[in-house]
Amino acid sequence: DFEGPSSGILGKGNMFDTILRSPLEGLRTIVSKKKKRHEFEGASLDLAYITPQVIAMGFPSQGVEAAYRNSIHAVYRFFETKHPDQYFIFNLCSERTYDASKFHGRVATYPFDDHNPPPFELMRPMVRHACHWIDSAPGNVVAIHCKAGKGRTGVMAVAYLLHSGICKTAEQAIKKFALMRTHDGKGVTIPSQLRYCRYFAENLHMERHLYCLFLTKVKIHKCPPGMNMLVLNVVGGQTRMESSAPVPSEHVTDVDVDMQAPIVGDVRFALRDLRKGTGKKAEFAAFWIHTSFVEPSLPLLIHKSELDGSIRKDKKHEKFSEDFAVSLYFDCLKTKVAKRLVCAPDTGISSVNVADHQQGVRGADDEDASSARLSFVLAADESSHGSPGAASCQQSEGASRGLDQTGGEVPMEEVFVRCPSNLTTKTES
């Protein structure tokens, strides 16, 4: 396997030898855990080549944090020495950024939250942006990072491996990233992130409509006794709903939580235990789905192994049964979201132009569907480096105009937009 043009890889030897050689480098090695590192000009960088053109790395840090993570100055020296004028960096962090001018403005931000999958419509634009840079000149490389350079970075690296044809299946791409990024073969591990990798593979070079589903019930299988009250949160787009159900204290049982909610696009489900006498809701499991990949005629079963959150620590099934699971039940009909839908170009979720009689969510009239409307405008960002496919998404509360499928203007009141309200993507200049 390709290891990249480095002078050596750290992490395979005795950790205490590393600490004795350099306290700071030893600290960085401990923080990076099982991730591969590269030694460059006396610095140990949390960085690995996934392919000769794609680098995964930790956040380029400054100040105190640079003592135990990648120093932004060392990262800059690495790229200026190894890939002068031929590198482009993708920052996936929603929680932090840095001055792009430190890398000559060659930084694009495609942000989403730690331990979560990206908005699905963010994936293809970012990958196309990366491919455009790589293909624009021989020797060009891209570097992808989040905070640790493993989970969020892995999802986007997997998407690139699929989109570019380097890997043919999601499993091949997930495995390749894990082998190239880590010593223990554990790259992308969060179940919802893995689910979105498989969504991307399923939709590769295809388009599908955005559908609204009507959620009718959630069944929690094999709830353990002693939980008191089970609380379910559902968040997606304009849907924010909470429902609860008591859990019998004497035996393991199935619990039904009634829900009457339209859901669309990326949706997060979270399970919380309302602890008796404290009022505290401790989240123990969560998962993300995208409604365009769900067949509503059958319940969607999410097994324990497919759940995010602290439940993943229960590997010996001491608190939750191995058969613990969540089933989602839907109205049998899928409904197209809108009369007109504006999406970023080539996201994999197509714009739709449905008949006049299909209105809003589940047939609601315009007034009832108004809560599903967001005034977003998305467009290809022909940014400072002329990279098409770098999506730009702006929330515009007062916006009065949108774009129809041909690029013509239509009144914003006729536009229903599916993007999550916290999605912003931009290329720094």
TrEMBL record:
Name of one Pfam family that matches: Tc-R-P
Alphabetized InterPro entries for the sequence: C2_domain_sf (IPR035892), Dual-spec_lipid-protein_phosph (IPR051281), Prot-tyrosine_phosphatase-like (IPR029021), PTP_PTEN (IPR045101), Tensin_C2-dom (IPR014020), Tensin_phosphatase (IPR029023), Tyr_Pase_AS (IPR016130), Tyr_Pase_dom (IPR000387)
SMART domains assigned to the protein according to its UniProt record, in alphabetical order: PTEN_C2
UniProt record, GO biological process: lipid metabolic process
PROSITE patterns in alphabetical order: C2_TENSIN (PS51182), PPASE_TENSIN (PS51181), TYR_PHOSPHATASE_1 (PS00383), TYR_PHOSPHATASE_2 (PS50056)
Record domain Phosphatase tensin-type: where: 36-207
Keywords for the protein's UniProt record, in alphabetical order: Hydrolase, Lipid metabolism, Protein phosphatase
Domain Tyrosine specific protein phosphatases: residue ranges: 117-195
Stretches for region Disordered: 382-429
SUPFAM superfamilies listed in its UniProt record: (Phosphotyrosine protein) phosphatases II (SSF52799), C2 domain (Calcium/lipid-binding domain, CaLB) (SSF49562)
Record GO terms (molecular function): phosphatidylinositol-3,4,5-trisphosphate 3-phosphatase activity; phosphoprotein phosphatase activity
Residue ranges annotated for the C2 tensin-type domain, each copy included: 210-333
A single cellular component GO annotation: cytosol
PANTHER family, sorted: PHOSPHATASE WITH HOMOLOGY TO TENSIN (PTHR12305)
Annotated family: Belongs to the PTEN phosphatase protein family.
Protein name (database record): Phosphatidylinositol-3,4,5-trisphosphate 3-phosphatase
Organism expressing this protein natively: Hemiselmis andersenii (Cryptophyte alga)
